[in-house]
Here is the input.
Amino acid sequence: MYSGKSMARRSLQASAEGIRKAKQAFKRKGWTQEYLAAEVGLETRQAIWKFFTGKPIDRHVFNDICFVLELDSSEIIQPITDDESNLLDIPLDIETLVQKLRSVIHENIQAQCGTVQLLDIPRPININDIYIDVDILEEINSQKWLEISKFCNLCDDENCALGVTDLLQTRVSALEAASKYTKLMVLGKPGSGKTTFLQAVANSCNQGLYQADHLPIFIRLQNFAEDIQGRTKISLWQYLQEYFLNFGIHERELSIVLAHGKALILLDGLDEVIEEDCEKIVHKIRQFTEKYYKNPLIITCRLGSQNYKFQGFTEVEIADFNQPQIAKFAEKWFCATAKNSAAASELAHRLMQKLELAENLPILDLAATPLLLSFICLVFLFNGDLPANRTELYKEALDLLLVRWDEVRGIKRDNNLSLLHKIKLLSYLAVNSLAQGSYFQSEAKLRQLITDYLRQISTEPTDLEALEIESASVLKVLESHYGILIERARGIYSFSHVSLQKYLAARGIVTNINTQTLPEFLNHLSEKHWQEVFLLSAGILKPADDLLLAIKQKINSLAVKNAKLYGFLTWLEKKAASANALYHPSGVRAFYFTLALPSEHPLARNQDLAILLDHQLAGNLAEDLALDLALIHALTVSLGITADIFSVRFSALSLALDLKHLLVNQPHLQTSLQELKNQLPLPSQGREVLKLWWQANGKEWTEALRTLMINTRQIGHNWQFNQQDLHHIQQYWNANKLLLDCLKSAADISPNLRNSLETTLFLVDEEKRLETRG
Here is the structure.
């Protein structure tokens, strides 16, 4: 390896041939020496005079003059002396030179890219301990021409929480893409892992695991833009020269490596360059890539920020984490941050179990973004669980995207709106989108809504056309700066996370809730994609009494708008009240509600909600409830029998009617059931006899069983619900379940109201009864 003494050559001078070329170029420009000095940024022309007379001048000035005159400085410089040549000791073959330079900068690349700083973790983490391979989408979502209906057909609440838009195309490994394309523009949402990916590439190259025959060069473009402030004529090549000069690497060595295409150029964060410098930096990158086109090069940038194209580059998009990636990242996160690896694995396992629960799908939606997943891991580490009230989690996640992530990375962005107005605008957009029943909106519709909002907050009359132009700018900021809105296909937008959209909708509703807006909100009570909004609204409101009482009143109105539902609920109240059992009254009503439904209904005999109201219902049931459950089972078995299968199902029916252990205190019912059993033919009579008997008597026998149950136990009614009735029943059930969930989410509610609402679930309000009778 050569000595650092080569760095003594701080000054450069032009050769005789170089002076000749420089003077020709100077003549073509038609400039004066004073004008050239001004172009280079010099106050006097003394250095220009020295340059043209072959005298040594500062190397930076020498390079700037060559750049302005559009000359290759390596062709102008006075060749190095024999002494300098001996000091440089440049290897004859490129492979040896690359390995030499790799060894020189190895420690620096390790310092730059070997560790990452996790959110709110006070120490750096080795990148190999946290990084997992990300996937990319080879087709940029925002460049696809698709109809909104394409998304709507795929997207329900569950799918949207799992990144449904990524299902429209194949995912491949990001490293595979980097190997496939020599010029790559990697796009992604804020916090999607762009920088960490680029660091991982640099680190792998540095360790000889990837592109081991290349020199890794990692540049943060924000630093590049700041470092060359006031030096408008400096090129990216000259910047690299100066950069490597600090490590004792001569510009000729770097030039040889670049000329042979043996550098792996990694440029991070094009979107982080401030707007006023962006065009200049893009120009310098373009000049560099055109000159040194042989070198593999990767640039990262946020989605929506790339208004420019680089010739020969393939644009790809970082995909959201899928569930296996979420699990793998979580395990690495806990192992990297916890002292006990066994405890870390257990924490990761428990977190994934929690995230996979149906009620936590909204949080799983956030976990698809590495930044937000890191935040979720942090919350779980400190609390040992996911928060029951998700409002604070969403509030912090939103703050992370809108404020903290840029602050952590030292990025300053131009702001069209204050933070408060951004949140209010996003809330306005979230409510309007949900109200239209779609998670996806056209660009034209979004811009119209933004224009409407800007008009509302304007204190002075504003030209409509000016507002429409500003709306386009605001939309672009919300997408490219914060990643809250994402262009899913050309001209089709959605919120990046459904859970954040619903949180923002809840904030907007709570902020503007009054006697006029509340009824409109309650009209969405039965709509599936609004349920999370109600839960979050109950969690945000302080107190939540008025909202919860209004939900109860809305449920009462649902009960009386369908005559069969109302009759069913009237029976339910009487039956539950007559049950001899010390359970939560609403739990008993929930138990009989599902018990009475047709067997083919999805809710039939589903006791999850009843158990949620009273955990004792999960154990040995009280005699009354156990008997009714057994009788309903027997009736269901009988109703499911046809003549052809009667011989096969005979034993099941006989067993279902064997209820002696439940009829000790019901001798009359025991006798009646035995008489019904005695009417059945003996199984020894053979299959054909049994078939003929059921054909002739099965229906009458089943109705006799039903009549016995109705007369003695007030259960087993044939309600003859049509599809509309069943729809209203499902709505009513869902609304009661939602009210119970809201009671659990509400952080501030009067104890008396909480108790009243819990104990009157599935119970029609007396006022509504009077209205119906009237």
User: Anything to note?
Assistant: Residues 1-8, 82-88, 161-165, 768-774 have pLDDT under 50 and may be disordered.
